[in-house]
Amino acid sequence: MNDQPAYGVKIGCSNCHNEWAETFFPKDEVEGTWEGLYVHDRRCTHKIGCHGCQFCHPVMCPVCKSLKVHAKDRYPLKGDDK
After folding, report:
1. 8-51 confidence digits (pLDDT tens)
2. Is residue 44 within 8 Å of residue 25, measured between CB atoms?
3. Is there a domain that residue 12 lies in?
4. Is residue 46 part of a domain?
């Protein structure tokens, strides 16, 4: 299993307009729903759509704690320059 994050997502809060970025691993899935963003973690043993395990979770604004967030951009992370 790859232990390095593979991509980042710029996230915006619809409530307080805060913007931040989070990084994710290759098999993590970030799903946009009408409720906000949800992360299906690569370590989850349930089927896609899991909303109750210890790994999968909604994305919450770190400032106002709102779940009304959206993906603004997704970008690959660069590997080591060797």
Report:
1. 999 999 999 999 999 999 989 898 888 899 888 888 887 666 76
2. no
3. yes
4. yes
